[in-house]
Amino acid sequence: MIHASTAVIIALLMGIAGVAYVIWQLRRILDYDQGNDTMRSIAAAIQEGASAFLTREYRVLGIFVVIVAVVIATFLHWQTALAFVFGAIASAGAGYLGMYVAVRANVRTAAAASRGLHEGLRVAFGSGAIMGMSVVSFSLLGMTVLYLIFKGDPNQLVYLTGFGFGASSIALFARVGGGIYTKAADVGADLVGKVEKGIPEDDPRNPAVIADNVGDNVGDVAGMGADLFESYSGSIIAAATLGATLGGGATAAFIGLPFLVAAVGVISSLFGIYMVIGKQNDAMPAAGVPMGFSDVAVGLSSTAPATAGGLMGFLKRYVAKVDENATLEDLLTALRRSVWGASAVILGLSLVTVLLSGVSFNYWLVILVGLIAGNGIAYVTEHYTSYTEKPTQSIAKACQTGPATTIIQGVAVGMMSTVLPVLITAVAILLSIWLGHKADGSLTAGLYAVALAGVGMLSTLGVTLATDAYGPVADNAGGIAEMSSLPKEVRHRTDALDSLGNTTAATGKGFAIGSAVLTALALLAAYVSAAKIDTLHILGATMLPGILIGAMLPYLFSALTMSAVGKAAHAIVLEVRRQFQEIPGLMEGTAKPDYAACVGISTEGALKEMIIPGTMAVVVPLVVGFVLGKEALAGLLIGTTASGFLLAVMMANAGGAWDNAKKWIETGQYGGKGSEAHKAAVVGDTVGDPFKDTSGPSLNILIKLMSIVSLVFAGAFGSGWFNF
Amino acid sequence: MIHASTAVIIALLMGIAGVAYVIWQLRRILDYDQGNDTMRSIAAAIQEGASAFLTREYRVLGIFVVIVAVVIATFLHWQTALAFVFGAIASAGAGYLGMYVAVRANVRTAAAASRGLHEGLRVAFGSGAIMGMSVVSFSLLGMTVLYLIFKGDPNQLVYLTGFGFGASSIALFARVGGGIYTKAADVGADLVGKVEKGIPEDDPRNPAVIADNVGDNVGDVAGMGADLFESYSGSIIAAATLGATLGGGATAAFIGLPFLVAAVGVISSLFGIYMVIGKQNDAMPAAGVPMGFSDVAVGLSSTAPATAGGLMGFLKRYVAKVDENATLEDLLTALRRSVWGASAVILGLSLVTVLLSGVSFNYWLVILVGLIAGNGIAYVTEHYTSYTEKPTQSIAKACQTGPATTIIQGVAVGMMSTVLPVLITAVAILLSIWLGHKADGSLTAGLYAVALAGVGMLSTLGVTLATDAYGPVADNAGGIAEMSSLPKEVRHRTDALDSLGNTTAATGKGFAIGSAVLTALALLAAYVSAAKIDTLHILGATMLPGILIGAMLPYLFSALTMSAVGKAAHAIVLEVRRQFQEIPGLMEGTAKPDYAACVGISTEGALKEMIIPGTMAVVVPLVVGFVLGKEALAGLLIGTTASGFLLAVMMANAGGAWDNAKKWIETGQYGGKGSEAHKAAVVGDTVGDPFKDTSGPSLNILIKLMSIVSLVFAGAFGSGWFNF
C-alpha cells in the first residue's frame, strides 16, 4: 500500500520534472529563428496586445482574488484563503506562460514553415506542449506543496478545496473574458473589413487585425488552458476529498491514488509529446543550458523520460514522420498517435500504481473507463464537426436554400450531436459507480470512482492540451505569413497546419466539456459529503425549485455572454470605421492603422462585460445555499450541470459544424466562394462564432465554479429560511 | 366535508353543462352567414383539407390506440386499458369538434367582419369558446364516468391514470404531427410563392395556400387543444392520486377537491366567455332549438350561467364593448378582462369549495398561487414577444446589421426570457409545497399542493383556451377575405382580429408550457408514490445517468422534429414547383391549382415524420424503467422536465420575438418592408417558425407523456439490471 504522503511526494517530484521540461522546451522554442523584419514587427504588435490584455485582466483578477481571499479568511479559515491564492497564482502563471510562448512561437512557426512542414509542426506543437505541461505541473506543484504545508491538520483536504476555487476564479475570467475578447475582435474585424471594405482576412490595413490575432491566443490558449487547469485540479481534489471518507484501512491509499495517477500521467504526456516532436536537436544549438535553476531543471527533465527509457527506445520507430506531401489526415494521425501512445503508457503505469496502492483492481478499470469516455466524446465531436462527415455536409447542403435553412439545420445538428456524448458520459458514470460499489460496497466508493474516472480522463492532459493549444499558434503563423507576403509554398504549409488546428480545436472543446461534467459531478459529490447532507430526496421540499433554477442558469449565462460579444463587437466596428475615415492613406496601404486602439477597446469591453456573468456564477450558489438551504443547493448544482452540459455541447458543435460547412463550400462545393450558398454559410459561421468560442465554453466554467464554490462553503450552509 | 363521490358527481354535472353549452354555441355559429360563393368555395377547400388530415391522423391513431390498449390490458389491467381508450376518444373528440367548428367559423368570421369588428370578434371567439369548453367538459365527463364505473375498486385511481395516458397519446400526435404539418405547409408555400414567384401571402394561385390555411387549424386549434386537454386531465389525476395517499379522515376530501375546483372552473369559464361575446342573440334566429337532445342541452346550459345569475347581472356592464375604432390594445383589454373576470369568479367559488371540503384554508392559497403563476408566465411571455416592448425591438435593431446578428440577438432574447418563467414556477412550487406541508405536515401534502396549483392554474381553461383557439380562426378569416377580394375595410377588420390572435397565441404558448411543467412534476410525484420508491438520493447509483439522459431527450426530440419540418417542406416545394411548371395558365390565374395534392403531401409527411419522435417518448421511459430501474426513471423524468421546460420556453419566445420583430419593421421601422433589415428579419422569422410552432410546443407533450407513461406502468418497474 502506498500512503497518501508518499503519493503526494511522488506527485510533487513529477510536478518539478514537468516544470523542468517546460523551461527546457521554452528555451528551445525561443532559440528558433524569427524570420524577416516585417514578421518580427507584426509579431511584436501581437505580443504587445496580448501582454496588454493579460496585464489588464490580471489587475482586475488581483482585486477579485484579494477580496475573495479576505472573505474566505474571515468566514472560513486562513488556510483555505491561502490555498485560494495559490490556486489563482498557479493557474494565472500557467496561462501567462502559455500565452507568452504562444505569441512568440507563432512567428517562429511561420519562419520554420519556410524550411518544411515538420519543422513548423514541431515549433507550434512545442508551444502547445509548454501550455499543456505548465498546466499539469503547476497544478500538481501547487496542490502537493499545500498538502505538505497543511500536513497533520485534520482539515487538510478541506483547505485544499480553496486551491480549486482559486483556479476556477482565474478560469472564469480567462474563459469568459477571453471568449468575449476573441469574438468581439473577430466579428468586428470581419464586419468592417470583409463586408464593408472588401479586404481579405488578415489584411494588415484592417485596424482590428492585430486584436483578432491576439484574440486567438487569449481565447484558445489562455482560456482553454485555465479551463482544463480547473478540471484537472478539481477532479483530483474531489477524488481525494471523497477518498478521505472511505472507510477501512485503505483511506490513505484512496487519498493518494489520484495524485499517483496524475504523477504517472506526466510521464505518459511527455512520451506523447516526444512522439510528435521527436528528436528535436537537429536545428538547435547545444542542449547545455547556462543558468543555475535551469541546469537542475534539465537534469530532472532528462531523468523523467529516462524512467521509461527502454519503452521509448522500443517505440522510437513510431515517432511521427511528417513529410512535405502530408495530407490533413496524415497530420491528424500524427497527433492522434501521440494521444493514443500516451493513453497506452498511462494504462500500463496506472495498473502498476493501482496494484501497488493495494486498492481493488476495479479502480484501474475505472481509469480505463474515464480514458475511453474522454476519447469517445472527442471522436463523436469530430464526427459532428468535420466537413468530411455527413452532419456538417448536411448543413452545407442546406446553405443552398439560404441562411434560414442553414441556421435551422445547424441547430438540428448541434442538438443531435448531444446524444452520444451524454450517453457516453452516463454509461461512464454508471460503470464507475458500479465498479466502485462492487469494490468497496458503498455509494461513496462509487462516487469516488466517478471522480477517479475524471482523473483518468485528464491524466494525459499534458499532451491532449498540447494538441489544442497548438491550434492558435498555427492560426497566427498563417496570419503572419499572409501579412508579410511569404512565398506561396510557405503559406500552403501554414494553411495545412491551421486546418489541423481547427479540427483539434473542435475535439478539444468536446473533451473540455466532458471532463468539466465529470469534474462538476465529482465536486458535487464531495460537496454533499462535506455539507453532511443526510437525505437528498429528489422531490424534497426545496429540491425541485433548486433544480429548475439551476437548469435556467446556463441560459441566463449564455444570454449575457452572447449579448456581451454583440456590444463589444459594436464598439470595435465603430472604431474601425472611424480609422478608415480619419486616417488618410489607410485603404491605399500608405498609412499604418492604430492597432493598439482596437486592442484597447477589445480589452476594455471584455473586462467590463465579464463582471456580471462572473459575479453571478459565484454569488448565486451562495444565495441559494443560505436562503433555500444546502439541499436546494445540491439540486441547483445538478440542474446547472445537466442543463449546462447539453447547452454547451449543442452550442460548441453547432458552431464548429457551421464553421466547417463554410470551409466545405469553400473547397468548391455548391458553387464555392462567392456563391449564394457561401453567403448563407457565412451567416451560419458568424452565428456560430459566439456559440462555439464564447457562450459554449464559458458554461464549462460555470458548472465547475458553482460546484467548487459550494464545496468550499459547504460547512457554512444550513437548512435555509424555509423550515419544513 | 364533501366526499369524493359527491365531488365527482358535481364535476360530472358541470361536464354535462359544458357539453350543452358547446352544442348550443355550435348551432349558433353554424347559423351565421357564410358570405359569397368565392368565400364558400375557399372555405370548402379548407374544410376538406382539414377533414382529410384528421381522418388520416385518426386512422393512424386508431391503430396506435388499439395496440397500446392491448399491451396495457395484457401487462396491467383491462380497466386501465378501458380508461386509456376513453382518454384517447375524449381528447380526439374535443380536437375534432374544435377543428370542425374552426374551419367553419373562419368564413363566417370574414362575413361577419363585413358587418363590424365586434361581430367578427364574436364569431371567432365563439369558435374558440367551443374548443375551450369541449376540452374542459369532455375531460371532466370522461374522468368522472370512469371514476363512477370503477367505484368501490381499491385501484380505481390507478385505472384512471390510463385516461391521462390516452389523452397524452392523442396530444402527441396532434401536437407533433400538427406542428410538422403547419410549418411544412407554411414554409413550403412561402419558399416558392413569396420567394421564387413573387406572389403575395394567401394568393389563391399558390397550390400550397389551402394546406397553409389548414395547417393553422391543425397546429394551433387541434394541437393546442390536445396539449391542454392533457395538462388539464393530468393535473386532476395527479392531484387525486396524491390525495389518496394523504392520511387522516380527510382522504376522500383530498381526492374530491381537484374535481370540485375543476367543476366550479366551468362556471368561471362560462362567465369569462360571456364577458367577451355578451348577449349574442342580436344577429341570430330565435334561440329555440328544434332537436330533442339539444333541447335538454340548452335547458342545462341556461341553468348553468343562471346559478351565477345575480353576479352576472351585476357585472353585465363590464361586458366587452368593442367598437369600430378599437385599437389592438382595446381588443387585448377585452380578452384580458374576460380572463381576469373568470379568475375572480374561480377564486370566490373555490374558496367556498375549500371551506365546504373541510380541508385547510392553505389549499385555497395554493389555488391562488397557481392562478397567479399561470397569468404571470403569460404576462412575461407577452413582454418578451410583443413588438411594443424592448426585447423584440432589440432584435429589430439587430436586423440592421444582417441575418447573423438577427439570429444571435433572437437566441439571446429567447434565453433571457427563460429567467422569469422559471423563477415564477420555482417560487410557485416552493410556496405550494410549503403551504401543503404546513397544513398537513408531510412532503406528500406538499406535492399534492403542487398538483392542486396546477389544477388551479388550469381551472379557467375554458376561457383561456378560447382566447388561444380564436387566433387561427381570425387568421383564416383574413386569408379568406384576401383570397375573395373583400373590400378594404373588411380586410382591415380581419387584420385587427388577426394581430390580436398573434399576441394571444404567444401568451397561450407560455401558459401551455407553464401548466405542462406543473402537470409533469405532479405526475412525477404521483409516479414516485405509486412506484413505492423509498429513497431517491439525488446522487443515487443510477440517478445521475438518469438525469443526464433525461436532460438530453428534449434536444434529441427537437432535432428530430426540426429535421422533420425540413423534409416535409422540401416535398411541398417540389410539388408547388411542379404545378407551376405543368399547369398552364396557373400563374395568370386562368387555371386552378391542385390544392389537394399539397394537402396530401403535408398530411403524408407529418404522419410519417411523427412516428420516430412519438415512439421515442413512449418507449424510452419504459426502457429506462426496466433496464436502469425505477429510481433512474425518476431521475430521467426530472431531467427531461427541467431541460425541456427551458428549451421549450427559449424556442417559443425566440420564435415569437423574431416573428414580431419582422412585424415591427413592417410598420415602417428601419426602412420597412423591402429594406435590408426586413430581409434579415424574414430570415429570423423563418428560423423561428419551427422553433415556436413545432419543436417548442412538442416538448410540452414530451415531458407530460413521459411522466404519465411512467405513472401508468409504475407498478411494473423493479430495481433494474444494475443491482447495487
What attributes characterize this protein structure?
homodimer, globular
General form of chain A = globular
* Largest sheet composition of chain A: none
Oligomer: homodimer
- SSE order of chain A, as H and E? HHHHHHHHHHHHHHHHHHHHHH
**Helix coverage percent of chain A:** over 70%
| Most extensive interface, chain pair and sizes | A-B, 77 and 77 residues
Q: How many β-strand stretches of chain A?
A: 0
Radius of gyration of chain A (CA) equals 24 Å
Explain what this protein looks like in three dimensions.
Two copies of one chain form a homodimer. Chain A has helices spanning 4-31, 37-75, 78-113, 117-149, 156-197, 209-244, 251-277, 292-307, 309-315, 328-357, 362-385, 390-398, 403-416, 419-440, 443-458, 461-483, 488-530, 543-582, 595-609, 611-627, 630-666, 676-712. Chain A is mostly helical and 724 residues long. Chain A has one domain (4-270, 327-716). In chain A, helix 7 (251-277) packs parallel to helix 15 (443-458). The longest helix of chain A is centred in the last third of the chain and has 43 residues, at 488-530. The model of chain A is unreliable at 280-309 (pLDDT under 50). At the A-B interface, helix 13, helix 14, helix 15, helix 17 and helix 18 of A face helix 13, helix 14, helix 15, helix 17 and helix 18 of B.
In a nutshell, what does this entry contain?
Two copies of one chain form a homodimer. Chain A has 724 residues and is an all-alpha fold.
